[in-house]
Every structure is written in C-alpha cells, then in structure tokens.
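The methods section describes the discrete structure representation at length, but only in general terms. An entry of this sort, consisting of the sequence and the corresponding backbone structure tokens, reads as follows.
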Amino acid sequence: MRIRHIGGIGDFGKLALLRHLMQGRRLAVCPYLTGANDEVKDFDKHFDYLRRPDEFRHLAPDLFDQLVEIVSGRTVADPLAALQTSKVLENAIFLRHEVPKQTSLRPLWAERLVNSVSGANLVFLDPDNGIQGKRLTNRHVALAEIAALRLKGRVLIIGHHQSGRKAEVKYLADQMKDLGYNLVEIVRLRLVASCLYVILDQDEGMAEATARFVRKWGGWAKSYRF
C-alpha cells in the first residue's frame, strides 16, 4: 500500500471490490508497509476522478463520498488511520506491521502476520508492487506467505500492480496453482494504472459476487478464471 495514494482512484477500485466481497465475512487488511514516504507523482492523475462524479460516483456512491471527505483532509499525519476510522471497510481489522527489508527476518514477520489474522475468513494483502516473482523485496508478498495464510473457509485476495510481464495473468495463476490453490480468479481494474486482484479459494457465493462487480464496472474491469 502506498500511503500517499490513499483515496486515489486505485483505492476507489480496490475498496469498492473489497466492500462488495466482504459481506458476511470478517475482513483483515494487511498493508505491506515499507516505511518509505513516497511522494505522489502526478497527483491530479490519481485524484482527479473525485472532481468527475458524473463519470465515477455511480459505481460506488457511498464510497465515493467517503473518499471525498478523506482526501479533503489530507493534511492529517496518518492517512491510513484516517481510512480505518472512516469505517469505509466497516469493522475490518487493519494490521500495521512494517515489512522488514532483510529477507532473513521475513519468516518471523510472516508468522506474526498469520497469527494476527487468525480470526479472519477474508484476508487482503496489499503490497506496494505485488506478488514475488524472480525477486523478493519488502514491496512484494512472498509466495511462502500466501501458502502460510491458507485456511479452510478463508478467501485470500492479493493486490498486484501489473508490470508488463508477458502473459502476466496466466503467470500469476500458475504460481498460485503451484502453491496448491485450485480455485483462482483474477480481476483486473484498469483505472490510472492496471492492477490485478488475485482471489484464492472463493466459494460459489463470492464467485457470483465477483461476477456482479465486474459487470457493474463495465469497461473498467475484467475477470479471468483458472
């Protein structure tokens, strides 16, 4: 999660998807905090949608209005706390464990993560970049963490910023299959940038909810099932 982008158009799509899928579930949100204080490049590009309600508000009216309020108060020192207290995601658990840069410290950090979400049956992992590929940094979700979070009755959703890798959607699905996940759906939201949401172990009810979301968002969204 890029703190400076909270309330931007990427968040609008991401939070709308989570709100749509979390009904009847206990959600835990796990931002992969890095400690970096990245400036928002092209601020208007990410936040201009809030000045275009006729184009975007109908997709998620209540959320749109809440994000207008959050962004208008961007002088607050802790945008993530503002997001949490806004109840945009109702009573979701928000974890705030900074990801260590040293890979040797990752297993202990991951163990703490797994223990912290033990009561959640919907877990969202929100890294800066996405799922581990050829390299693992604190801006990536480790494949081992995805495996460790698997639990009967739990749905796992992982955000992944599309990198331009050839056949990236299929590559991600194959990674998840290799971890033992048989039910893989990937939703692509193409707003300012293209972001993929990898949904693992969803049941029939959530699969139907995902399909409704994609239909509502029209040309902004596309779904792939494997």
Summary: The beta strands are 27-31, 93-94, 122-126, 130-131, 140-141, 155-161, 184-190, 194-200, 221-225. Residues 9 and 46 are 5 Å apart (CA to CA).
